[in-house]
From TrEMBL:
Belongs to the PRAME family. GO terms for cellular component: cytoplasm. Gene3D superfamilies: Ribonuclease Inhibitor (3.80.10.10). One of its GO terms (biological process) is negative regulation of apoptotic process. InterPro entries: LRR_dom_sf, LRRC14/PRAME, PRAME. Transmembrane segments: none annotated. Keywords: Leucine-rich repeat, Repeat. This is PRAME family member 9/15-like. It comes from the Eukaryota.
């Protein structure tokens, strides 16, 4: 029989106070700082609307994090908070106790509430919510614009009720409210609604953008104009599914898209999934990059020799830590192009992904010397390439001495397949012995392999 933890005196005091809402409201001004968060949680979840309003107007912290507490079917408490903010915004000077500068609607405030509710013994929240020391100075604070932080995940064609309500609320108070967003993710929404939302957001607050929509190239060009205003973006993931259609102004759209990279002065991570519009003109984008990149991912598309050449010549990849070209068919490429590219990044590269690239034995053998010079490499993946046992042995001889290489993902050698494409039990057993020579643990994503490997182990066990 488990013993229940008795309620803390602090919790009992808060619950008692909320039973008499009039008393709770009158007590807010003199409420100890440590009582504010647990009492606020009780009032929010218990929908004590008037108490909530009073507490917001006397909030003794810089930040009020509500993202983890918002319950979409019941927006009453959130509306009460916004109504209380209206009262604050209408005042020329802040109440003497109120320190509120940021309303945080991101899912980042759980630590804050856990600490103050007694559920955690760790320090203050990592999101910068440091409690302000309580004092009773009568000095009043001038009103500064209130910042409202929100995570934008635009996953529906139309705006949901909460976002519609918030956008309308911000629009009516745009002189005193800054709507900020650090992470923007667009999966499915009309460009008209996207522009409506983003027109209310401080675009220079956005640090990460992820787009995965079905668009015409012209639509992507329209969005790129907005992207160019997000000057503090550090991470960009573009994976648009482009509708196949002949567009007379296609080259003009490409220029409109790539030219916006000139305005991204803080870009560090660039991920382009299936960027078919860049085939043969990757240099247009590379010339517009303004900062050294940490990670580049160009995947599942076709590139030309000139594209790969321009990538290797780009000065902004010299400090690259991650390079992902998975799904880019390299079968017909001269291995010298890949050699030159790896030479440029050898001193800093930590992750290299060349999965499903159609790399041949000859190409891999040509790049082995430069690959072994990637002294910082930690992860190497070559899955999905049809390679022989012979070249795999040579590869492992080159990588065995690499000090930081800890994750290696290789395809099953082609000798392990029968003429009909099935995995051969006997050859798999040889592959296991081969791996042991290099002190490797075999893992593969080949269908049915784990069952076959188990069968080999059982057979070997039954023989002993």
């Amino acid at each position: 029989m488990s013993v229940q933890t008795p309620p803390r005196l602090l919790d009992l005091a808060g619950a008692s106070l909320l039973r008499d809402e009039a008393s709770a409201i009158s007590a807010v001004e003199d409420l100890p700082t440590e009582l504010f968060p647990p009492l606020f949680m009780e009032a929010f979840h218990g929908r004590h609307i008037e108490t909530l309003k009073a507490m917001v107007q006397a909030w003794p912290f810089v930040r009020l994090p509500l993202g983890d507490m918002i319950d979409m079917p019941h927006v009453g408490p959130l509306q009460a908070v916004l109504e209380a903010l209206d009262v604050l915004l209408a005042q020329k000077v802040r109440p003497r106790r109120c320190k509120l500068q940021v309303l945080d609607l991101q899912d980042t405030g759980q630590t804050f509430w856990s600490v103050w509710s007694g559920a955690s013994t760790h320090g203050c929240s990592s999101s910068g919510m440091v409690p302000v020391a309580e004092h009773r100075s009568m000095t009043q604070q001038p009103v500064a614009p209130l910042e409202v932080f929100i995570e934008l995940r635009l996953k529906k064609r139309t705006l949901d009720n909460f976002l519609t309500y918030l956008i309308r609320w911000v629009e009516q108070r745009k002189a005193s409210i800054h709507l900020c967003c650090k992470k923007l993710k667009i999966v499915k929404m009309s460009m008209e609604n996207i522009m409506t939302v983003l027109s209310r957001v401080q675009l220079d607050c956005i640090q990460e953008v992820q787009v995965n929509c079905t668009w015409h190239l012209s639509t992507l060009a329209v969005f790129a104009a907005l992207l160019g205003q997000m000057g503090n973006v550090q991470r960009l993931l573009l994976s648009p599914i482009l509708v196949s259609a002949f567009e007379e102004l296609e080259q003009q759209h490409v220029v409109q898209i790539t030219s916006q990279f000139l305005r991204l002065h803080h870009l560090r991570d660039l991920h382009l999934e299936s960027p078919s519009f860049l085939e043969g003109c990757l240099d247009q984008m590379l010339r517009c990059l303004k900062t050294p990149l940490d990670n580049v991912s160009i995947t599942n598309c076709r590139l030309t020799d000139s594209d790969l050449l321009h990538l290797s010549q780009c000065p902004n990849i010299r400090q690259l830590k991650g390079l992902d070209l998975s799904g880019v068919t390299l079968t017909g490429f001269s291995p010298e192009l890949l050699q030159v590219l790896l030479e440029q990044v050898a001193a800093s590269l930590q992750e290299l992904n060349l999965e499903q690239c159609g790399i041949s034995d000859f190409q891999l053998e040509c790049i082995l010397p430069v690959l072994s010079h990637c002294s910082q490499l930690r992860t190497l993946s070559l899955c999905g390439n049809l390679l022989s046992m012979t070249i795999m042995e040579k590869l492992l001889c080159h990588t065995t001495g690499m000090p930081h290489l800890s994750e290696e993902f290789y395809p099953t050698p082609q000798e392990s397949y029968s003429p009909h494409g099935a995995l051969h039990l006997g050859r798999l057993a040889q592959l296991r012995d081969f791996a042991k020579e290099f002190d490797l643990t075999l893992r593969t994503q080949e269908p049915g392999y784990s069952d076959l490997y188990q069968l080999i182990e059982q057979k070997n066990g039954s023989k002993t």
